[in-house]
Design brief:
The chain is α/β, with parallel strands linked by helices and about 210 residues long. It has a single domain (about 1-25, about 80-205), classed as Rossmann fold, CATH 3.40.50. Helices cover about 45% and strands about 15% of the residues. β5 (about 120-125) and β6 (about 130-135) form a beta hairpin. α2 crosses α3, α4 (about 60-70) packs parallel to α5 (about 90-100) and α6 crosses α7 (about 160-175). It starts with a strand and ends with a helix. The structure holds BIS(adenosine)-5'-pentaphosphate (AP5). The site of BIS(adenosine)-5'-pentaphosphate has 36 residues, from α1, α2, α3, α6 and β6.
């Protein structure tokens, strides 16, 4: 299956991608995670991307498309993949159509007020990137990753001001993708409010997996 996860920042794309990835044994590809890794490694791409990400803006399409063309050509993508955070603009979606035939674009629907509350409570493992929430999806031991024992930290772009900027960018530039995929008969929607496990069950049901 070639699946796109659509949704506002903090709607739970990464959280649900992990469940689908485990169930279908296909890779989950997050452009945000690739960019954060590039920043950590101090690459040219990372240096360019950081100023956009810290301001809550989208990284320019040419940088993202270069990354994704390379990534989707890797052997682990042969049997399908989950795209978490890509495409995020109409030009990105049009470019993707030239290199891949997508089966489904799944939109995880969450209101802006819920998003703002979620983002301040998000904690991410410094080592493996696994995501938690201090109340909604807490780790077994405070501040420690359940999977690898790494330290849990707050992302630089999870402060309230940047979250509001990211939501505005989402509504203006990414939300139109819902109509784009609806027009192609590929859009599915799930309610993203409720327990992580209940949403996982509706995602599986909607995808028929
Ligand atoms: P990216 O890393 O993709 O961030 P995002 O889309 O803003 O999404 P998030 O990772 O913030 O949230 P999510 O939907 O994955 O939610 P999560 O599962 O973590 O992108 C970061 C930046 O990179 C962008 O701003 C942009 O600058 C750049 N970028 C990336 N891709 C790009 C592209 N294609 N083009 C241009 N620029 C690009 O959940 C959030 C929190 O809620 C967690 O704490 C989680 O535990 C909790 N949670 C999840 N589900 C629930 C639930 N049901 N109930 C309660 N809490 C929950």
């Amino acid at each position: 299956m070639k699946l796109i996860l659509l949704g506002a920042p903090g709607s739970g794309k990464g959280t649900q991608a992990a469940f689908i990835c485990e169930k279908l044994s296909i890779p989950s590809i997050s452009t945000g995670a690739i960019l954060r890794e590039a920043i950590k490694n101090g690459t040219q791409t990372g240096l360019k991307a950081k100023e956009y990400m810290d301001a809550g803006k989208l990284v320019p399409d040419d940088i993202i498309l270069g990354i994704m063309e390379d990534r989707l050509a890797e052997p682990d993508c042969a049997n399908g993949y989950i795209l978490d955070g890509f495409p995020r603009t109409i030009p990105q979606a049009e470019a993707l159509e030239k290199i891949a035939s997508i089966d489904c674009a799944l939109s995880i629907e969450v209101s802006d007020s819920e998003i703002e509350q979620r983002m301040t409570g998000r904690r991410v493992c410094k080592d493996c990137g696994k995501t938690f929430h201090i109340t909604g999806n807490p780790p077994k031991k405070e501040g420690i990753c359940d999977d690898c024992g790494g330290e849990l930290i707050q992302r630089d772009d999870d402060n309230p001001e940047t979250v509001r900027a990211r939501l505005t960018v989402y509504h203006n530039e990414t939300e139109p993708l819902k109509s784009f995929y609806e027009g192609r008969g590929k859009l599915r929607r799930v309610n993203g409010v409720g327990s992580v496990e209940d949403i996982r069950d509706s995602v599986f049901e909607t995808l028929g997996i």
